[in-house]
Specification:
mainly beta; Neuraminidase; 3 domains; signal
Length: 425
């Protein structure tokens, strides 16, 4: 009898804990009024953001509630010409901010601090927004607990919670609408082998169904995700067509689905090893599509030889049926930023950063024009030598995130003239 009462008590405590977490996640927090500048005693200082409350009709009240904070940003994503996200983790709490005026002011759209984040989320891996209002954040399971999926449909004013049954590493997330999306989790099981589990939602993340899996060692059915190789990314171009990139025995591979993830097959051959004999190691990104028609896209591929890296690109104009390789006429990259890949806004228009100089191409990387040395970048790179990420959202507007890992500081910079001039946001 005593054992039965003990089990009942444990179950009751667990239920209360879950209810408290759900209440915290859905609670709308009001921003502090006239709060003094926040100082992070762990050394996570650098970027200064002007934070305002969520948009409302009371402009005077919003102006009075404006305050500034210093925080360390670890990633960002531009959503459109005016709006973007930026975030970091402080004391295991995710600090997520949104701007709709090109960084002049920011709104705190962070989920509850009750949801702890042991690592910084990366866009496309564990955080994704399909538009300004609809976003998802995946927090891997901790201590044997389920993987948590946070979702918002009101721009971060409130967050709701669901979970995935397994606690493997979250490798990729992709959505094609506010309702339809996928999450991929992986677990390394041996040399060159990786269990892969794909989950799909068709109701915006309220519920998730486990689809194809490669973790059943006793079956080998046609259409399941291959256990061979290590996943490097996943993206869906529409509700049916998806792509999973991987490195398989040292070779870039692409797997494709045309039924929403039910069945997978090896994509068309795009990689010729004979053309890269000098390369020791490769990495390949998931396809990045241009525009809503989901026909043209590109994948970046890095080739490592010793301490230097060169980048190439594979481009498609038929939705991923076929891929054409392009060699980028750029110098070999060395040093702390050697893994920074070029970025492309269209099949022809791209940008690259090498040794503090911005390069621009309008012919798919065949030729590059070097912009004049930016005095702003030159000065900032002395204190923030590491480039975390670069993104262009239009031919004129783009962001760069730089950091100093030792000092635990970062800065977010913006260009409004296509990369020639930069300023700190």
């Amino acid at each position: 009898m005593r054992l039965q009462w003990k089990k009942i008590a444990q179950t009751a405590m667990l239920s209360i804990g879950i209810m408290m977490l759900l209440v915290a996640c859905t609670k709308t927090e009001q921003p502090p009024v006239a709060e003094p500048q926040e100082q992070d005693d762990s050394g996570n200082v650098g970027q200064t953001l002007t934070v305002v409350p969520p948009a409302n009709n009371n402009t005077e009240a919003a102006e009075m509630a404006k305050y500034q904070i210093q925080t360390r940003l670890t990633d960002f994503q531009l959503i459109n010409d005016n709006g973007g996200l930026a975030w970091g983790v402080t004391r295991n709490a995710l600090r997520l901010y949104y701007t709709q005026d090109q960084g002049k002011t920011w709104t705190n759209i962070s989920p509850s601090e009750n949801v702890q984040f042991p690592a910084n989320p990366k866009y496309g891996e564990s955080i994704y927004f399909v538009d300004r209002m609809h976003g998802w954040i995946v927090r891997e399971g901790m201590g044997g607990t389920d993987t948590i999926v946070l979702r918002t449909n009101n721009g971060g004013v409130s967050w709701s919670l669901s979970s995935l049954s397994k606690t493997d590493k979250v490798t990729a997330i992709s959505f094609v609408s506010p309702e339809k999306g996928w999450v991929l989790t992986t677990l390394d099981t041996g040399i060159g082998k990786q269990d892969k589990n794909l989950y799909r939602t068709q109701d915006g993340g309220t519920t998730w169904e486990r689809m194809t899996s490669s973790d059943d060692k006793d079956k080998s059915q046609t259409g399941e995700i291959s256990r061979r190789g290590y996943t490097t990314g996943m993206t869906f171009s529409d509700s049916k067509h998806g792509f999973l990139s991987a490195i398989e025995f040292g070779t870039p591979k692409l797997y494709v689905t045309s039924d929403g993830g039910e069945q997978w097959r090896t994509g068309s051959s795009f990689f010729d090893r004979d053309k890269f004999k000098a390369c020791g190691n490769f990495t390949i990104s998931a396809p990045q599509f241009f525009g809503r028609e989901a026909k043209s896209a590109w994948m970046s591929m890095s080739c490592a030889s010793g301490e230097s890296i060169t980048f190439s690109g594979f481009f498609t104009a038929d939705g991923g049926v076929s891929w054409k390789p392009y060699s980028f006429n750029l110098d070999k990259q060395t040093g702390i930023n050697r893994n920074l890949a070029p970025v492309f806004l269209s099949p022809s228009e791209g940008w690259a950063m090498q040794k503090g100089i911005m390069y621009y191409s309008k012919d798919t990387g065949k030729t590059w024009t070097a912009y004049p040395t930016s005095s702003v970048l030159e000065k900032i790179f002395k204190d923030y030598p590491e480039i975390v990420k670069m993104q262009m959202v239009s031919p004129k507007l783009g962001w760069i995130l730089v950091e100093n890992t030792d000092a635990k500081r970062s800065l977010l910079l913006q260009t409004v003239d296509g990369g020639e001039h930069w300023k700190v946001l």
